[in-house]
Design brief:
The protein has 13 helices and no strands. By secondary structure, the protein is mainly α. The protein has 2 domains: 83 residues, ARM repeat  fold (Up-down Bundle), CATH 1.20.1660.10; 131 residues, Leucine-rich Repeat Variant. Helix 5 runs parallel beside helix 7, helix 7 crosses helix 9 and helix 9 packs parallel to helix 11. It is globular, with a radius of gyration of 18 Å.
Length: 214
């Protein structure tokens, strides 16, 4: 039995309805919660090489209607994240902009961040994404440095955030706040200075999120 069949045999229609409702009924679900999904895929993921990225598998997951398969793909990509190279940017762009919602995008942005940290030339792409018409690409650019702590490139972060001030989009304003809040854990003074400098252009939601720890 392959992993796709295993997932479908583990379907729970009652839970599927609840999971889909939580995601505003944007996607159908099998009804497999995260712990069970990871238990089902654990042995399968161990068989996948960490030295190269199997994009055929990722795109096969993305082609499935049920959302758990996209989660399987992002779980897999997390396992092979250090094999990602700048040549994978077009494929990352594809899965960010197809079947987009916060659940998958927020799993991919940290993968992009890891790639950019290892290959700084990717920063140019992130600056391009920060002004793209697709706000999920902008959200990825805004939040790609989450968890970097003292490795945060504040000059790059400032440029990306400034490119997105004055927005009405909830997912952008929330992302700005999260990015600043995360940065404030290691560099609170920089975040205070950013708010003082740009606060009149920031959404109240962004300021609220950014100020949580300062």
């Amino acid at each position: 039995m392959n992993i796709f069949e295993s997932f479908r045999q583990a379907a729970n229609p009652e839970i599927a309805v609840q999971m889909s409702a939580y995601m505003r009924d944007l996607f159908p679900f099998l009804g497999i919660k995260t712990p069970e999904r990871r238990a089902l895929s654990r042995e399968f993921l161990k068989t996948k090489s960490k030295k190269e990225v199997d994009w055929d598998f990722v795109f096969k997951c993305w082609a499935q209607p049920e959302r758990e398969f996209q989660y399987l793909a992002t779980d897999y990509l997390d396992k092979v994240k250090n094999a990602l190279t700048p040549s994978d940017i077009p494929n990352l762009h594809r899965i960010i902009t197809e079947k987009s919602w916060w659940d998958t995008v927020d799993a991919i942005d940290v993968l992009v961040g890891n790639l950019a940290l290892r290959h700084p030339e990717v920063n140019d792409t992130l600056l391009e994404w920060s002004v793209d018409e697709n706000f999920w690409l902008r959200r990825t650019a805004i939040d790609h440095q989450l968890g970097r702590k003292d490795k945060t490139d504040t000059d790059l972060l400032e440029r990306i955030l400034v490119n997105n001030l004055g927005q009405k989009e909830f997912f952008i304003n929330k992302a700005i706040g999260w990015s600043l809040r995360d940065c404030s854990k290691t560099n609170p003074e920089w975040v205070r200075d950013f708010i003082n400098k740009y606060g009149d252009r920031m959404a109240a939601l962004s300021i609220k999120e950014a100020s949580k720890y300062i």
